[in-house]
Write the structure tokens for this entry.
Amino acid sequence: MSNGGSTSQHNGAGENYLTAGYGLKSWLLTTDHKRIAILYLITISIFFALGGLFAVLIRLELLTPAGDLFSSDTYNKLFTMHGLVMIFFFLIPSIPAVVLLGGVDTGWTFYAPYSEAYSNTAVGLTAIGVFITGFSSILTGLNFIVTIHKMRAPGLTWFRLPLFVWAHYATSLIMLLGTPVVAISILLVFLERVFGIGIFDPALGGDPVLFQHLFWFYSHPAVYIMILPSMGVISEIITCFSRKRIFGYSFIAFSSLAIAILGFLVWGHHMFVSSQSIYAGMVFSILTMMVAIPSAVKVFNWTATMYKGTIIYQTPMLYVFGFLGLFTVGGLTGLFLGTLGLDVHVHDTYFVVAHFHYIMVGGAIMGYLGGLHYWWPKITGRMYSEAWAKLSAVIIFIGFNLTFFPQFLVGYLGMPRRYHVYPPEFQIYHVLSTAGASVLAVGYLFPLVYLLWSLAYGEKAGPNPWQAKGLEWTIPSPPPTYNFDVTPVVTEEAYDYESMPREAQFVIEP
Amino acid sequence: MSSNHSGVVAHQFDDAVQQRETANLGMWAFLITEVMMFGGLFASYGYYRWKFHDAFVEGSNHLDYLLGATNTGVLICSSFTMALAVQAAQAGKRKSTIVFLLLTMVLGLAFLGIKAVEYTEKYEHHLIPGHGFQVASAHPNLVELFFAFYFTMTGLHALHMIIGLVVLSILVSMAWRNRFSTDYYSPVENAGIYWHFVDIVWIFLFPFLYLIGRS
Amino acid sequence: MLKDIPFLPQAASAMAGRVDLLYLFLIAVSVFFFVLVATLVFIFAIRYRKREGGADPTPIHGSLGLELLWTIIPFCLSMVMFGWGAVLYFNMFSPPEDAQNIYVVGKQWMWKIQHPEGNREIDELHVPLGASVRLIMTSEDVIHSFYVPAFRMKMDVVPGRYTSTWFKATKIGKYHLFCAEYCGTKHSEMVGSVYVMDPVEYEDWLNRSTTATKSMAEVGGELFTQLGCQTCHFEQSGGRGPSLHNLYDTPVRLMSGETVKADDGYLRQAILDPAGQVVEGYLPIMPTYKTQVDEEDVLKLIAYIKSLALPQKMSAHPAEENQ
Amino acid sequence: MSEHVIPKGVYVLIFVTLLILTLLTVEVSFWNLGILNFHMAVLIASTKSMLVILYFMHVRYKGGLTGVFVAAGFIFLGILLTFTLADLMTRGWQYQPDTSAFSMLIPPR
Ligand code: HEA
Ligand code: HEA
Ligand code: CUA
Ligand SMILES: [Cu+2]
């Protein structure tokens, strides 16, 4: 394996953001966004492992139909924690911290009146946590939107922005519009608990279905917060390893916006059997179908990008392949759920569980891992072991399908979610699923090991090991404390790979 | 406000205009989140008002619409003086900026004062939800629900007023120390936008809470 | 081996086959698109892989024609899904006129079921083959969800109001009943069985099952006297309250000027919150019975009031009528 | 690009209009218009807030981007309100003898 660093100006002597200032304090109080990013990366990795640990315990319990490993209360806490940690570790890592202190067992959907009247644990505390994080995610979103509108580098027109930025713009939009609503509903829950006023509790005159409306108004769009950044990552990687510009740039860009906006119109599809009016159900169903279209457009454009490219099987690209397949399955099964007559049967069964794991693990996590491998050299200045990386990508793919595909089947057979004991005829599927989860766990352990290993022993990466386009690749790896010495001027479109000289196309052999 | 270097352009901006526009847009984006937050409340309120119309009428009739109307007037006056303060800041008139800001604050305080009178009265009539709530009604818990919304909505609104007053007092002191110029007045402008927004919330709260079932 | 891994659950209701058909259609569409995407990715990955002497990447910006194609086709297909699903959904929540009622009360963590004939069961539901059954459900605590996979039927059971759904069993047998909405510690143990029986046997079961010495309406009638309702509600008009005879399912004019139908929900409210809807021409003097009756009592009272309605409207054994 | 400075006269005009509209909304609420009372209240409040937004908040004189932001805020607010209330208001339509009145219930505990 030869190193792309041969063309680099990187001399190892200059100060970069990793070496500028040592000590815990300089890290914790840092305002350099790259350091923040590293801290963020570490935090979410820890939370991912923690969420994974809960998942493994869930899977172990489900190995047999009887509830032999944990008590039902423990199991209920497990999946609640698993869901919360996994969902919110994507957004902001501080909610889980609050949750873990308290011990909540309401399910991540906090359904009233259950969450109020019967859950004697720390909903109040969680509420405060959500409020605080909510506020910070609002500020993040706000900051991002305004920055994009007003502070782009010269020449960086809207249609020259990397698609990653578009995706983030859409994400911020969702945070800006959705978070306040969930914040206020949590406040109402809080008031209800403290003052005993019946806002959602039917015993006092309230209506639990209203809570579901307010909750899903935020939480459906929030699922797109999880997938959109990954979609952005896919656009970056697929162009780089096809050595080709993206197919249908503006369609991909606008579909992100369409997803963000339409995403606010479909929340009722979580409530088809909640005693919501069936007419509202129909409206939500038809809109759900429409929000799927922009995702379809993206999938097809990514596929078309590979046409007549020069495909390089580097690890990040393998994750892209995985993403394309698994996201498509996850998305298509989302349509099953959006189809009214069918959702009545599969709602709150393992079919739903399989759907969102296909999208979130198969889609979002694959994107996250792809991005991690893609930018690892940039962040750390080191190359990881390609062979090990490829191996674990394959293991993850296999383990993933083994874990979650059986869940579609058992879901359609009628296995409800959040069950810790179940009828024996479902066991075979659960055994398969648990077996898959073990494979998956191994697959996730590998990157942990070889990435850490590369920090010490990996080859030096040079500024642009993939010969990638994009401003971040023009500066040394790891980047210096002040990103750019001079404000860069952008004169070309994003992903203009074809115009690169052929010999510069790629240095690392696949 | 994004920056407090008076007259100085912070390093991530190219010039004063870009900086001002950015701050302004940021304020608008923030207000969108505020709209959505109050929106959640209005949606819940609307839901129950439709569902429990009679109880909400009853609850509403316990409110003193004259005080509500007076307060609406007071708030509109304060918006007016706020608009004049922004205008004065734009024109670089330090003294009238300060005077109008102070006037706005006085009106804001008057609003809160009247609100306090109303709250006290509710307290005396045992109309505080969850706190020995008592009302002669066929469905007291639904009337209580109305008052829960009344207090949550007006309370959140009052909180916004208080924050606004704090901001205004900072602005007064900045203006006092001559921090603003015709190039740099966006703190005043943005505080103005915020203040008007709070006014708008009240413009809806007033008829929704005080004026139902009066006919 | 493969027989142990079924693909579709048992189908035991009129709706089941229709839902499965829709499911198969969606699978067909999904397989098509999945295979399409996967094959293309696969072919491109092989055909255009980086290799000695491979062609340079060709710059392609996009193609409006293709974009339209792959927007419109999925859109049309998804509209078919919507339409098909919506029709089924509508049917699922529109019980036929002749459906017989069975009452369900969910409670942490059990299902309490009452037949109009007075039989009561816990975590079990016996129904006759071929009859349309409408479930009228409510909860005493939190939200539950009544789920019978073999019927492809599910409906949330919400405290504070009645929800309803219906089914028509088509195959004799014993089927799972699950609670599908997370409801606390023993959510996964809030399960039971549904028995679909031959109508004759069902009759038999009704008579046999010992819980039912009196019909629900009869018990309701006793309650009516016990609670003193008859002090105001006489058979003829002239009491302090209106006569409840022939009231069920007829329009009632309220003091507020509205006219509402005297259905189950209305009656429930009339008993629990009389002041909420006062009948025109009467004073709001009826006390609330909120503290004196529970959900099951209310159902019984309602059954009694129903039994006071026109005889042809009510039948003691609707199952018979269906045959 | 310097800010447009709005003449005082405009502010005064808007101010007076707002006060008049406040009186009007109180007055109208005492007329017996049935359901229309609510519509009138919303109409007047919307007019008032429109005036505040356009003139006091300078949106009329700002670039299109601010307008887009404001519109976005209202559109999404509209979505939240419409869809939530639409559920409640159409529940009674369903063919089912027993659902229409249920949404009005106070249950026992
Ligand atoms: C990242 C997260 C994510 C994403 C992106 C999605 C995307 C989608 N989701 Fe999913 N969903 C969840 C996370 C996510 N979901 C979670 C966590 C839950 C459970 C919540 C809980 O209860 O705990 C859930 C639940 C859920 C439900 C409720 C199920 C129930 O409880 O009964 C529904 C119902 O409509 C649904 C639908 C969809 C649809 C239609 C999409 C669409 O956006 C998908 C679009 C993508 C495609 C369609 C694939 C690509 C397209 C093609 C290859 C072309 C062919 C296309 C056509 C023919 C149209 N989802
Ligand atoms: C992004 C979100 C995300 C992710 C990644 C996952 C990942 C996984 N999930 Fe989860 N899941 C949810 C989101 C997610 N899940 C949500 C929202 C719910 C609903 C909760 C609710 O009902 O409220 C749910 C529910 C859920 C259930 C249903 C529980 C129930 O309804 O009863 C199951 C059951 O199999 C499950 C399994 C798994 C498995 C096997 C994985 C695997 O992919 C995990 C694999 C990961 C690991 C095995 C960890 C790897 C280990 C290391 C990296 C190193 C070790 C650590 C150190 C040395 C520190 N999940
Ligand atoms: Cu009852 Cu789950
Ligand atoms: Cu959703």
Q: What stands out?
A: The helical segments of chain C are 14-47, 64-92, 199-208, 216-226, 264-272, 295-307, 318-322.
